[in-house]
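ok trying again, last paste got cut off:
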Amino acid sequence: MATYICLMKFTDQGIKEIKEAPERIEKAFKTLEAMGGRIVEFYTTMGEYDYVAIAEGPSDEVAMTFLLGLGAAGNVRTTTLKAFNREEFVKLVKRLP
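nice, full thing came through this time. structure:
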């Protein structure tokens, strides 16, 4: 499965409804699982981003669909990075001409 690092910031709506955040997070975990992916790690952070999640998904299309739904809910805005672990990076480098 592909790995994604998702950086999230609260929207005005998200911070106003912060008391519901634990339930929203649990729902997001279950939604991604139903789509064939999973949240590997999830952190609430201080600084520029409010949440950081490391997720796995079966495809970029699944990841994008999940992220569009997350954004459409209106509580967070996301910046997502597709990530490659060390072994994947080594394989890519070996393919260089």
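cool. The first strand starts at residue 2 and ends at 10. The beta strands are 2-10, 38-44, 51-57, 76-83.
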